[in-house]
Design a protein that fits this description.
Layout: H1 16-30, E1 37-38, H2 50-63, H3 79-90, E2 102-105, H4 108-114, E3 125-129, H5 133-141, E4 157-161, E5 179-183, H6 195-208, E6 211-215, E7 241-246, H7 248-251, E8 259-262, E9 268-269, E10 272-273, H8 274-285, H9 291-299, H10 303-329, E11 334-336, E12 342-346, H11 354-365, E13 367-368, E14 370-371, E15 382-386, H12 391-402
Parallel strand pairs: 1-13, 3-4, 3-5, 5-6, 6-7
Antiparallel strand pairs: 2-8, 7-8, 9-10, 11-12, 12-15, 14-15
The structure holds D-malate.
């Protein structure tokens, strides 16, 4: 008998950003001339760095000749990119990660979702609330959670509340957990942990024999010295953490697609090597990121590429500062926006529900943001603004909203 994976039916009809888009499209059908300013999904607006574009053009030329044509590439990625990562993202920062521990992919979203394949269905998960919805939904689909409860949470998950009281940074689980998702700098709140704070998580994971799934998609935005850019800066992390990295926000690859995941060889569960398991998983289900994308990604490690990437990130960070300062000036409660492109803001008293504030901003100010509750129960009454627009639009949005 044909039977579907019924876990799909547990999920809401649409993914958060699809719902935002659906509401925006409905509004545009009513008001086709509205000039919307988009500060919702974290999608880049600056063109790709020049060195990336040139490298991709050269890669296209390679594909145009039989002698240099690349067909299927290595599933784990080309050596030229894995070696550049080993050298620039790790060794240059005093971290010993070898290229065999680096797996190139089409981005952190798929990897953070696919990693669930490595674990049995009875592992105890710890997930922050609010959280990037992919971590929760991918586990729901895998059947690793129970039912959706009345409070909007899933049974079978240990939620780590992040709220005004703890400054929207997670505190250690109060019970034993096996797998912990951490996203730092955080999506959606833009908050970070210091090196000392993150060390406590690594120590906890080692003591509890837990694994940390560390999403570092926003590491390029870190500017403060005491905020780590990689979990492997911390002692013991290679024995307990998998790190996900993305070129989407770093170098504008949201449409190009390329990222990578580090699974250290030291990472064992019993006698099983997670590095070997992930390699097996990827060689079975993935044929690698495109040669052209990987050539583009490698270009960001050149001197010129690094400079261009830095300029782009500085531009977005400047926008984040504009948003932060404008809200703070008129007395809003604000988090993030310092080492992050996201600014997390308490909604005004007149709009205690995030979706109501979304509708108000859309209809009255023609500004799109993301309702905090879409990231979890603790996000109710908060709102996320993305700094990935132009500075002109960012300023105009602040004027419209705070007038
Ligand atoms: C976001 O806006 O949270 C991100 O752009 C979504 C993503 O990275 O998939």
């Amino acid at each position: 008998m044909k039977e579907i994976n019924t876990h799909f039916q547990k999920l809401q009809d649409s993914y958060l950003f699809a719902e935002v888009n659906h509401r925006v499209q409905a509004y545009l059908r009513e008001q086709p001339d509205a000039r919307l300013i988009r500060m919702g999904i974290g999608d880049v607006t600056l063109p790709l760095p020049k060195s990336v574009i040139e490298a991709m053009h050269r890669a296209v030329d390679d594909e145009a000749k039989a002698q240099t044509l690349r067909g299927y590439g290595p599933e784990q990625g080309y050596d030229f990119l894995r070696e550049a990562i080993e050298e620039h993202d790790y060794r240059a920062r005093g971290i010993d990660i070898s290229k065999d521990e680096v797996f190139i992919s089409d981005g952190a979203k798929s990897d953070t979702a696919n990693i669930v394949d490595l674990f049995s269905n009875d592992v105890r998960l710890a997930i922050t609330d609010p959280v990037y919805p992919v971590y929760v939904d991918s586990n729901v689909l895998a059947g690793r959670t129970g039912e959706l409860m009345d409070d909007g949470r899933w049974s079978g998950i240990s939620y780590l509340d992040c709220n005004r009281e703890n400054g929207f940074v997670p505190t250690l689980p109060s019970e034993h957990v096996d797998v912990i998702y951490l996203c730092l700098p955080n999506n959606p709140t833009g908050t970070t942990l210091t090196r000392d704070q993150l060390q406590q998580w690594v120590d906890y994971a080692q003591a509890e024999d837990a694994i940390i799934l560390y999403d570092g998609a926003y590491e390029a935005f870190v500017r403060e010295e005491d905020v780590p850019r990689s979990i492997y800066e911390l002692k013991g992390a290679k024995q307990c953490a998998i790190e996900f990295r993305s070129y989407s926000k770093t170098a504008g690859f949201t449409g190009v697609r390329c990222g990578y995941t580090v699974v250290p060889k030291d990472l064992q569960v019993g006698s099983a090597s997670l590095n070997a398991m992930w390699r097996r998983r990827q060689t079975t289900k993935f044929n690698g990121a495109s040669y052209i994308s990987q050539r583009g990604a490698a270009a960001i490690y050149t001197e010129e590429g690094k400079k261009e990437v830095r300029q782009n990130i500085d531009y977005y960070l400047h926008n984040a500062g504009v948003i932060r300062d404008a809200f703070l000036k008129v007395g809003y409660e604000v988090f993030g926006g310092i080492n992050s492109p996201y600014v997390w803001v308490k909604t005004p008293d007149a709009y205690p529900q995030s979706w109501d504030f979304f509708e108000y901003l859309l209809r009255e100010k023609q500004v799109i943001g993301t309702p905090g509750v879409g990231f979890g129960q603790q996000g109710e009454g908060y709102f996320r603004f993305s700094a990935f627009g132009s500075t002109e639009d960012t300023r105009e949005a602040m004027e419209r909203m705070l007038k």
